[in-house]
Amino acid sequence: MVPKREVDPMDDEYWCEACEDPIDFDVTGRAKRHCSTCSVAYRQARRYGLTIWRMNAILRVQDDECAICGQYPGDAGMEGISYWQIDHDHSCCDRSGSCGRCVRGLLCRPCNLRGVAWYEGLPSERRDWPRMNVYLADPPAQRPEAAVSTWGDTTGIRARDGAFASWRSTRPL
Questions:
Q1: pLDDT digits (tens, 9 = 90+) for 46-72
Q2: Cβ contacts of 85 within 8 Å, gap of 6 or more
Q3: How far is CA 117 from CA 25, 87, 110, in A?
Q4: What pLDDT digit, counting tens, does each position of 107-116 carry?
Q5: Cα angle vertex 29, ends 25, 34, to 5°?
């Protein structure tokens, strides 16, 4: 059995670089320099060809809400793992994840799984949901203002916890 690692509270190595929570080294599958909670969002971003900074910028453009229904994500609250779903155009990439250029936005689970997928399967004459049509015609992630452009985009993991949104700096880089 490997002994538990002693944590020196003054050593930066023991604190998550995103949220500054202590890192539990006994948790497996954690991303380097991230706590287990931030690791989920970090890996999710990488899978879809994004960075945490880019996800933060997309959420800034979406006002930290689902781009379709305007709700906040989460089945059991905002704390814990990322409940945001990264929506991308499946016709662009034929692999699991995305190239990053076809990402359309960050959605709550119901809108991503039951909304977009169902709606795109409808014949064009039956596509009469105005909010969905606006979202598909002008995806938030593909707007110029969704580029990383503020200091607030470069700190924290906004996709992990909506509490980060209240103190985000909008000062330009």
A1: 888 898 889 989 998 998 889 999 887
A2: 73, 106, 107, 108, 109, 111, 112, 113
A3: 38, 10, 10
A4: 988 888 888 9
A5: 60
Please say whether the beta carbons of 73 and 52 come within 8 A.
Answer: no
Whole-number Å distance between alpha carbons of 67 and 23 = 32
Q: Find, among 158, 136, 33, the residue nearest to 91 by Cα.
A: 136
What is the Cα–Cα distance from 70 to 113, expressed in whole angstroms?
A: 16
Are 147 and 102 in contact by the 8 Å Cβ rule? The answer is no
The Cα 136–Cα 87 span in angstroms is 11
C-beta of residue 64 within 8 angstroms of C-beta of residue 157: no
pTM above 0.70, yes or no: yes
What are the φ and ψ backbone dihedral angles of 147, each rounded to 5 degrees?
-75, 155
Number of Cβ atoms within 10 Å of the Cβ of 84: 28
Partners of 103 in the β-ladder: 88
